[in-house]
Amino acid sequence: MSAAPLLAAEGLSVAFDTPRGRVHALEDVSLAVARGETVGLVGESGSGKSTLALTLLRALTPSGGSIRFDGQEIGQLSSRALKPVRRRLQMVFQDPYASLDPRMTVARIVAEPLRAHRFGTRSEIAVRVAELLAAVGLPEEAAQRYPAEFSGGQRQRIAIARAIALEPEMVVADEPVSALDVSIQAQIVNLLQDIQTRMGIAYLVIAHDLPLVHQIADRIVVLYLGRVVEEGPAEAVVARPLHPYTAGLLAATPTVDTAGRPRLRLGGDPPSPIDRPSGCAFHPRCPIARDRCRSERPALTARDGGRRVACHFPGEVPPPLALRPDPV
Prior knowledge:
Blueprint: E1 7-18, E2 21-33, E3 38-42, H1 49-56, E4 64-69, E5 72-73, H2 79-88, E6 89-92, H3 106-116, H4 122-135, H5 152-163, E7 170-174, H6 182-199, E8 202-207, H7 210-216, E9 219-224, E10 227-233, H8 234-239, H9 244-251, E11 256-257, H10 291-295, E12 301-303, E13 307-309, E14 322-323
Parallel strand pairs: 3-8, 3-9, 6-7, 7-8
Antiparallel strand pairs: 1-2, 1-4, 4-5, 9-10, 10-13, 11-14, 12-13
Helix pairs in contact: 3-4, 3-5, 4-5, 5-6
């Protein structure tokens, strides 16, 4: 029997009331992250990725479903009861320019979670801050400087140091490299992997770049309009996507080599979460949609090889799209 997951969401839903109507940001989302595992969550802007991240961290309260962390139900816990959990479950935000308080020194920023959780004396916190800066590749003198004095990549290193300060068991990274130059992206990805190797941290990495997620993830979960449409081992999902939306994400990425292969293009924009299409929500944009897709919502069904897909005609997509090898 496999060990219980570190984080597990079951039937998770989040809805917001707006002047235009009720927005169903997440509907019946289930996923799990094992200890030391990296799960990639991908989808276009507006698919619900960040809402899911904030809900798993309990910055948002779910409308329905459950969230269990290390076996404990945390979906409806009060802020006070959540404090011990927050020590073990941290986040790295997308924008390293907005996520750091410009009025605080790096030492204060990195020490903030240590002080909040009564880590130790002032001198012990100072020692820990120095260790954390070294762990993310920043010099000791960076501690007394301010965020404005650093590049985007260096700021994200500061944010990572803050996230791992309490040695959490899991980190949710919401688009951690999307605001950075391509050359810096690789450095941050390598840093996250090095930290995982040293500390055994589990990651939920959120991105719209499927090849990037493939590079670092053990499993990939694909989200469309607040619902999971595909999940499976990263290699299998990239080599043979079962859902046409996943195939479209791959084909739309410049780093995918489609020479000599049919190319699937995603047309149009995702529908409004206020007025969802009938049947499969993807059918207005799907090149293989049929009458059944317009009238019947496909269930998320288990497949061989640890995969799940919500499609009436799984696998009826262009041949596998291979990633270009990394440049030497």
